[in-house]
Amino acid sequence: MESAAGLVNMPGGDRVRATSHGDTYSVEKALPVDGFRLAYERSGDGPAVVLLHGWPGDHTDYRDVAPLISSSVDVVVPDLRGFGESDKHRSDPAGAYSADAQARSVVGLIEQLRLDHPVIGGYDIGSRIAQTLARIRPDLIRALVVSPPLPGIGTRILTAQAQQEFWYQSFHQLNLAQQLIDGRPPAVRAYLRHFWSHWSGPGYEVTDDRLDHLVSVYAEPGAFTASIGWYRAGAGAVARSLAEQPPQPGDRIAVSTTVLWPEHDPLFPTGWSDRIDDFFANGRLRYLAGVGHFTPVECPHEFAEALAVAADVPFP
Fold first, then answer.
1. CA atoms lying within 13 Å on the CB side of residue 103
2. DSSP string, 257-295
3. Given CA atoms 132, 138, 141, 146 in this order, what sign does their dihedral have?
4. Residue of 31, 50, 111, 268 with fewest CB within 10 Å of its CB?
5. What is the DSSP letter of 123?
């Protein structure tokens, strides 16, 4: 029997997801960390790559990236805590949904699957979690491939133009956000469509099929509220940017890092890419022409190529 999320229940309790490419991926659940079990999809064989999605998305943000590299790498794509098919608990956001908490679940997944020094890819909140992982467990990972947000923004995030973009992070602190949106499919659809349309580049528009899927997972009662636990934990770009200070040279992120910075991201203009070297000991910056905020969705080929280079495998 097929569920609304495109899952087919198989004998024995396993589930398989059919994709628009005609491929199928098993949907599995990791062992719990802090009481949270992550759902994840896995495909391919070779060096490991773990891909972390953004808000407002889920693991399907990488549905066009994974097929490009799965012939050469072992691709693991989880739903983060509070998203998609992963566990959602009514817990204190600071303890359950912060960057450190999310990173603990990713560490647990890597260790459970015995992934050998995976490359970690991420954008939006997935980028922050990847960077947190590189700080707390650099021994565990091989390299990062990330898109904004990146450290070094500082007080520039308080400019009038920036605050016109980041209003939603304050809105997410209010109970009004869940009262107006949570469990209401038309409201969820309108809200998510705004961000997917406004934050994307000029050559991309979210499809009805994509939006249908996101509404199916975000409109479940409690799902939207769980997704904004990240912001209620103080992990959003505004709070983090104001708190960050350049570390001492010896304390910079030492993991090899490729930064893919899009040209048309209204949240993170290219001018904010000027302090990468203050925070990363081995960082490389690449600009993505014509692309908006949703880098793995808008330019899957470029994202996949960067992952392949980081994993040291051939790319078609």
1. 19
2. EEEEEETT-SSS-GGGGTTGGGTBTTEEEEEETT--S-H
3. positive
4. 31
5. -
In tens, the pLDDT along 123-134 reads: 999 999 999 999
Helix, coil or strand: residue 241: helix
pTM to 2 decimal places:
0.92
- Hey, which residues does 156 pair with through a beta bridge? none
Dist. CA 128–CA 148, nearest whole Å: 8
Please give the structure tokens belonging to residue 29.
């659940």
Residues 6+ apart with CB under 8 A from 3: 9
Q: Compute the C-alpha angle 98/91/225, nearest 5°.
A: 80
Contact predicate 59/67, CB 8 Å: no
Tell me the C-alpha to C-alpha distance, in Å, between residue 117 and each of 61, 101, 299, 306.
23, 20, 25, 16
Question: What distance lies between CA 67 and its chain's CA centroid?
Answer: 18
DSSP symbol at 205: -
Q: Which residue has the tokens 């999310």?
A: 102
pLDDT tens digits for range 87-119: 999 999 999 999 999 999 999 999 999 999 999
pLDDT tens, 260-281? 999 999 999 999 999 999 999 9
Tokens representing 273?
Answer: 């890419």
Tens of pLDDT, residue by residue over 193-243, are 999 999 999 999 999 999 999 999 999 999 999 999 999 998 788 888 888
